[in-house]
Amino acid sequence: MSVAFAHWSASWPVLIGYALVAGWHLAGLRLLMARAGDEAAAGNELRRQAALFHLGLVLVLLALVSPLGYWSTVYIWVRALQTLLVAVVGPGLIVLGAPWLALRQLRPRGEQATARQATRVPFFVSRPVAAVVAFNVVFVCWQLPALYDPSRVNAALALAEHVSYVAAGVLLWLQLISSRPISASAPPLRRMGLLVATVGVSTVVGMVLVFGSGVLYPVYANSAHHIMTVLDDQQLSGAVLWMGMLPPMITAGVSLLMQWLNNEESADLSAGLDRLLTQRRGGWPSRPVIR
To answer: DSSP per residue over 118-185, as a string?
Structure first.
């Protein structure tokens, strides 16, 4: 029980960043709620999205400042769990929370953003393949020993790692799911292909760690590994990355599959109605024709 209350980290850059983003969003949300007025449905939807957004922020925060952050410098498998929370789970909830309209309410000179203006995103956000490639490059590069070991002891490098994880994770999820008012640009089947490719990359990384026979991260050789060896710890971390990536990706995949099926059913229904409403010429002429 004492572990849950020990080793909390006062990482000031992380705490300040969280406070700024959360406060910015809440201030913008207050303006949106005022504009919603008596529209109960709109207000409830804004509250639901805000809850998801802040849950994602809190998960990222806890992954870095709670005892999880401390133990991630002791055990490799804990660091793998931290990576999943910071790069995949947290950003996924942030995108589901659709904070963009609220974040764009506080603009210079008192200008408020419209839904059309909120959809103006940087070009790399609207490039699905480039965004997914960027996520996988970030994910793989931070698993390389050349970056993995130094970021354990270098606070600035660790902060860069976590910031890049969150940014790349948000870009990834923006390609897979819609986040009002931003809509994913690729059709469902193409997004499914991007999702499968991402799962494939994480699977390869996990397999390399699980089945590897050599220690890749010797910096983790410490006195805490008197029960399990560093190699055992490394192999367990591979299993965490491998299996831990599957639940959120399977959930997104099922959602994309249902969306694709709904689109196909709608297209078939429209085509059927068009055929019924279109007059057809019969095989025989309606009036005798003199030949």
So the answer is: HT---GGGG-HHHHHHHHHHHHHHTTSHHHHHHHHH-HHHHHHHHHHHHHHHHHHHHHHS-BTTB--S
Are 89 and 248 in contact by the 8 Å Cβ rule? The answer is yes
Bridge partner list, 182: 179
Hey, is 289 helix, strand or coil?
coil
- Sequence spans of domains, the chain: 2-106+123-266
Instruction: Give the DSSP H or E segment for 29.
Output: helix 12-36
DSSP line for 81-95 = HHHHIIIIIHHHHHH
In three-state secondary structure terms, 107 is coil
Assigned token pair, 218: 């010797």
Provide the pLDDT for residue 269: 46
Rounded Cα distance between 32 and 174, Å, is 22
Residues with Cβ within 8 Å of residue 114, at least 6 apart in sequence: none
AA identity, residue 24: W
- Rg over alpha carbons for the chain, rounded to the nearest Å, is 25
Q: What is the mean pLDDT of each run of 10 residues along the chain (291 residues)?
A: 66 92 93 78 85 96 92 93 96 94 74 50 73 95 94 92 96 90 83 94 96 91 83 95 94 90 60 53 53 49
Q: Which of 169, 195, 182 is nearest to 93 (CA)?
A: 169
